[in-house]
Amino acid sequence: MSDVVLTTFDWVPETPRGYVRDLRVRWALEEAELPYRVEVTPFGDRTAEHFLHQPFGQVPWLTDGDIVIFESGAILLHLGASSDALLPVDPQRRNEVIQWSFAALNSLEMASLPWSLFLFSGDTEETPGKQLLDKFLAARLGHLEAALVGREWLAETFSMADILTADVLRLVDRFDGLAQHPACRDYVARATARPAFLKAHSDQIAHFAAAD
Amino acid sequence: MSDVVLTTFDWVPETPRGYVRDLRVRWALEEAELPYRVEVTPFGDRTAEHFLHQPFGQVPWLTDGDIVIFESGAILLHLGASSDALLPVDPQRRNEVIQWSFAALNSLEMASLPWSLFLFSGDTEETPGKQLLDKFLAARLGHLEAALVGREWLAETFSMADILTADVLRLVDRFDGLAQHPACRDYVARATARPAFLKAHSDQIAHFAAAD
User: With CB atoms 3.0 to 4.6 Å apart as the test, which of A116, A173, B47, B101 could cross-link to B161 if both were Cys?
Assistant: First the structure.
């Protein structure tokens, strides 16, 4: 019997469905073939208990026996300790995966998410600040593009770094932000064709649809 | 004799001095009392060797024997494995530190750095996109403020999570962005009063000044 519990929202609006961050954890759990069950916390009124587990009022958090942990990056690192499919044991390869995981969250998503927020807001004004954000994202994607050419995955084999990176790029792709970066686009297509992603994605869609 | 080598730029302009990310690593090395030496890579013309070690053309990267690793978060996690001063061994406490470290880099800095970029650009236009960024940062700081009230450090004792969080907040504070968040401001003051921070900071300033 599994005691791994993933907590996510009970419901979210249509727009974020398929992009809620429990997806990263679902995907990792599927890749690692670790059984888990899902519990929910209200989307509408964030409870005191929610903030106790996730101080920023976000989801997901994971319960694994005695451990309760938030931040999808931290959760994947935790799961990686029990699965070579996410994080190799060999120190060199392990560090390679860890550095690319942090790169996804700190070098890449820091540029891509604010850019997406701007597009969500419907803001089309070309102010100097907006242009700096565009340039910031283009530079990071350009460097990633160069790193991805001729590579299947970021490290020697598929890892948690690819889950994080592909999920970050997926949101850029949704706004057609990868048009100038074919290696990035192909990489996202490759990653999201994996059975573990497809299962995780359809499970998230079904979870929120069930609450409509 | 030490074989820990921190690579940073040979020189940077005045504005970023004191804020270049090798500071996070210097600070961690000082807290852990690990000896290290500094090597440099050109700021002006980023070399092919630079991109080999750091695909985004940033600094720092760390060499520790056979391991070469980039991303300051990944480097701190690597150093944490050999120092309880950065990362506790106990699994519960360890997870607490790791989740807050990811929160600093992904939940907090993702909101604060784009906001700082906007201010750097001199953009004062109140477009919907800019207002969304302001709101994004204010929400994250508000949640952190609530978490910090009555706490000295994010986990039970000072850790790598505090190095990352305080360094993220320091840049917000530079633009007077913590005026409405006194617990955050006090926390930064507390963290940056530590001898290890003061040493790391003055070492970085001296390093770049020596190249003028």
Answer: B101
